[in-house]
Amino acid sequence: MILRLRPSETANSILGIDYARLRTLGQQALLFDFDGTLARKGASCMPAVSLSLLAELAEMGFRIAILTNRRSTRTIANITVPIMYHARKPRRAGYLALLRELASDPAHCTMIGDRTLTDVLGGNRIGMYTIRVRQHPCECP
Ligand SMILES: [Mg+2]
Question: Which domains are present in the chain?
Answer without folding.
Answer: 3-139 (3.40.50.1000)
